[in-house]
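Run folding on both entries below.
>entry_1
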Amino acid sequence: MELIFYTTAQCHLCELAEALLINTPMPAPIPVEAVDIAQSQALVTTYGTRIPVLRRNDTGAELDWPFDRDQLLDFLRP
């Protein structure tokens, strides 16, 4: 599994989500690709009011902010 982290610059909520992602103990490392939505109008349209958003590349499932540690761990379960 890999994650895409939809984010943008100067986003306080994105910083909170990133800190939660970094500080949540995981059983195995999970690669995360950060994508700045400002680089694409299509991404701004899709995620502009939802960021930060985590997306699993294996299932396509998305987790919108706000989420807590338990919701994050549930999201990451196989």
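>entry_2
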Amino acid sequence: MVPSEDAAPQLDVDQILADPGVRIVVCCGAGGVGKTTTAAALALRAAERHGRRTVVLTIDPARRLAQSLGLTELDNTPRQVKGIDVEANGGELHAMMLDMKRTFDDVVLQHTDPAKAAEIFANPFYQAMSSTFAGTQEYMAMEKLGQLHARGEWDLIVVDTPPSRSALDFLDAPARLSRFLDGRMLRLLLAPARTGGRSMFSLVTASFGMFSKVVQKVLGAQLLTDLSGFVAALDSMFGGFRQRAEQTYRILQARETAFLLVAAPEPDAVREAAYFAGRLREERMPLAGLVLNRVHRSAAPGLDAAESLAAAERLADLGGHEGTVDVLRAHAALARQAARERQVAARFTEAFPAVPAVSVTAQPADVHDVDGLRTIGAAISRP
């Protein structure tokens, strides 16, 4: 028997968007499941229908969000979206895309003097880390979310995360930063700077000399010099980095935050959603529900695939009913697909029966404008 797609409690997205106590909505899930479109649609609906001053932050480097909102570009500064229907309720919609290097630069400028900032910016290791270093994007996403929250200008912040394994890095960023700051290698790298040494190659102790030779052989002398200079320059900022990251992590655990898992009725996407749901539960983070995108439904649910194919075969034998035969066969294929999708979706529901869910019917074309986002927002928020 095929499980019902309505077995899970019904997710009321409008209740979340209208709740003044909810200030952050985080959309997360696997890649290619419509996460960016979902985030934009929710932000638009919050502004237009519920009159909230909303900003949507995308961490996805794709430009789909800007295009769907009618903007020529997005950058690290919120840009107001014009031409939406907010005159009656006073809502606003702003959008931005994370620029991790610029965010890192802004953090440095906020917490150091101009001379120290110039030294940091010129360091080759900083230049590499702020642009391409693994984990920097996720940590800077935490920084940007914390900045937006602290400004207090927004009724609601909607965050579009990277694909789920990267989104888990988004959650793990504070702990990973703490491990880095407290690591033995980092303490050894900092030792010369903290004791007044001219460089890390001032051999503070014989053991440190042996350590530096080993690391030089692995990393190379120049890279190690760059790393030592970077660590020494940022030493005074490390406490602030950790404190802000941990503060944002606590915000994500608070009742003002709602996590929405976004998935498609495909095995990999549902498996990722279940994995993330488990992690959210472990981290005591508020999971509001599941949005199941691109669901296929039959217009005649009472006619199953087997019956449809049998009728098609009988008509084909009689002859003269080619159009009807084609329709019946197409219906059978759609009914089989819908049944498979319900079975896949049931894997999540069976693992997390208390998590509310809503299904969004597959659209005939990709969403590329505000009207399309309104359609998606209405579908997600159906009563």
